[in-house]
Each structure stands twice: as C-alpha cells, then as structure tokens.
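Researcher: Please predict.
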Amino acid sequence: MATEHDASITPQVAMTLAAIAATAATPRPSGETTAEQRSRILQGVGRQLAEPSLATGNDWLPIWLALSPDNANMAYLAASRSTNAFAVVLRGTVGSVTDLTEDLGVGTVVPFTAVGSPPAPVAVAKGAMEAFTQVVTMSASGVTLVQALADALARTAPNPTVHVIGHSLGGCIATMVAPWLRAQTWQGVTPRFGLHTFAAPTAGSPEFAAYVDSLKWVAHERHFNAWDVVPQAWTGLDDVKKWYPHPPGPEANEEVKAVITAIAGLPGPHAYAQPGRAHKLHPDYRSDYDRAMVRKTLQDFMGQVAFQHANATYLGLLGAPDVLPGPAVRALSSNAGKAGSALVIAGSGFGPGAAVDFGAVPCPDPVVSSDGLAISVRVPPGVGVVAVRVTTDLGTSPAVPFGQFAYDGPAPVMVTGIAPDSGRTGRSVTVTGVNFGSDTQVFFGDNPSPSVRIERTGAPGEVVATAPAPTTGAGKPRTVDITVLSNGYSSPTGPVAEFTYQEL
C-alpha cells in the first residue's frame, strides 16, 4: 500500500505522464471498435509506465482509462507505487496545431458552472467546455473518472495527493477538470490537488484564470516553450508574426502572417488569460529547432510550429528521456505489385502482435523479424495506391511516401533530393528520386522547367532540370517545391525538394 511519503512530482515526471497519454492515439486504418482501441491504448500506456528508463521509472500503475467515442479525448488514472499520489492525465485532440486552436471554439463563451457557484461568474470557451464535458462523462465499462478516482481514494492511505496533468489541449482541459475534481465530495478522505500543464492554450476569461489561481493547490505550474505557438493562444499570437529568428529561420512570410491574423481573430471580443505559475522553457531558439524546417515558407513554418509543440521537444527541454516510440515504416521491398505477392516492410518498432494494413484492408498473418525491424507479408486484395501502415500497442505508423503500394503498378514517383537547393533562373538542378519514367516533367512551384534531361530512370532515378523564371508578385514566396510528374504520378512535396530563388 502507498504511504504518506512526499507525494510531489517533478516536471520531468509530470510531462512524461502527459506524453504517455498520446500512446496509440491513432486508430487502426482497417478499423477497430472503441473498446478494442481502448484496450490497445491501455496496454500501451501500461507498457510505457513499466519502462524503467523513463522519468516515471516504473513507479506508476494505470488503474483506469477511458476514450471518447469519437477519439477526440482520452484520460487515464494512474497510482504511484512509492507515494500516496495519483495522476489524472488528460489527452486532447491529436491533430494539427491549426485544427487544435480552431477546435477550442473561442468565439463563443459559456459560464463554467461545473464547480458550483464561484464568487463571481467565470466564462470559458464553448469548445473547451464541450471537451471538458466529454472527458468527465466518458466511461470505461460504465465507470467514469470521478467514480474510478473515488474508488482508488477509498482504498489508499490518509492524505492522498491527486495531480491533474495535461499537454496541449489536454492541459487546457486540465485547468477545468482540476477545480471540478476539487469541488466533488470524497467519502472519508480529503485529497490534496496539484495542477500541472504543458504547452496549454487558455480555456477561459481572466475571471476564470483568477478563480483557478485562487484555489489551494499543492502545486500549480504552467510550463511552456517560448517558441511554441499554442500557449500564445489567446494572449500573444501577434508576437508569433516575428518568429522564427533568422538565422536559422523560418521567418514568417506574408502567407504565414495572414494565417496567424486569421487565427488571432477567432476569439472576437472575448478576452482570455492563462492561470498558473508560468515556467518559460527554451529562451534561446537556436539551441533546439527542427533543422529540416528553416525555409521561409508556410510549410516549413508550420512544421517548425509542430516541432516546438511536440511532446518530445518538451521532454527534451525538461531534461527527460523521450517516451517509447510507436512503429515506423521506412520502406517497402517493392512499391508496386499484385495481390498475393510477397513483400517485406522495413522500419522500426515492429514488436510481437504487430498488425499490418494496406489502406483500409488488413493483412493476414504478418511475420515480424526477431529484431523488430522488418515484417514479411503477402499483399492482401486491393486496388489503387494505398499506404502500408503498421499498428502495435504503442500506436499506428504514419503514412510515408516510401510506404506507398500501387496495385498492378506503376510504382509511385518520389523525390529524394535536389542539388543545388537554391539559385537563379536558368540554374541547372539535379533531381534524384525513384521511378522516374521517360515522360518525366519537372515543376518549380507552378512553373514547368523549360529543359529536362533524363539521366537515369527507375530506382534510383536522376534528371537535370533548368530552373524556370519564378512567379513574382505580392505574397509569392521565393522558396518553392520541386515536383516530378511521371507515369501519372506527382511526387510528394517536402523539405528535401524545396528550392529557393536567389535575388538578382
């Protein structure tokens, strides 16, 4: 049984608990029921918490976990093995940063009455209230969060501590869940509460923030990366237009500034404020940034935003090890073929029980190598071009260009590099990749190259293209994507295919 030892937790432990909440958030492409996904997530969370190399040090045991029917939110309850502490950990929507800010529904506010009657009316964003309501009403086998916590508290030693924790939208929801839990009546026990948020946008008005701050907490901390856009919502988004400093960049161009202006306008007349004692992380941007996302484009800017907001970045800034990674597909032994043909998937994190999907079609009887770096399969029936993805209890691999499979061919076209990656009109650029055919065309942004010389087709492929005159004018970026068209395919865009026009 837990004892009355010091039940405080460090930021490294709290952030690790928050990062673990993202485990297996992506549903399996071929489909699974909410109960099946919940079971897989619970198994993955348990595996993460049992990992001794993490900051949580195998000291926490999951005792309840619930998932909303639409997979928008998840929460789990864990108990410390060594102290009389519990953690309520919240996961918000898993998606793009832009989607996250829009999901908050900050243009409309509603009263936060879930805690009874505060001294003065307090308002929260309607979207945040909807997420809160979903979290506190979702259940596992009919057991809600408050019921699971009440049962755990009834069986523990006196004076327990409950830490409410969340990253990103989970942190936003945590600022509502924590005072709501404090307002509950707990039979035979009076728990103390702590509130720990990371990368959280605000949930409500200055009056809401003041109300949360007025409550008695054993800890009340808000950690944020100084270069993370999300915690700036909704009090400092205009500052983001001055990001990211050059060098290394990516500086905000006019397209980026227009997006930020649109997002900043979502609250309308409503004012928002952050509760909690602020702990700023990462004051020197140049010490930690995504080296692949430094060009002055909307794509690179949003890529850098995603990096600065990521769980892994926050763990690194706090000096904590990253959580166990989910599966990742690196390449296929063939990117085209017929149903029934043998195929090897190369990647990492392919443990026992790994499942494989070709698009939305499950693959029968995959054979995982002993080192977890390869899976041998027979291609299931299908049609068209699909993503091959692997699912384990730690998650589902993202779709990647080299994980595409084309039924009956031809194989997808992909660019692997360009040299040089900058120059003026008329510059010869060598484009390397795979599956270039004799009909290969090369585009610099929306402009076709006037001269394309095919050096090598197939895999690897290589062409030499002359840079056309760029499209100029207000709002037109100097950095463009190079795309290759061949065999009916257009190559995916990405950092490896960005070309910057030098000024004359």
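Model: The radius of gyration is 25 Å.
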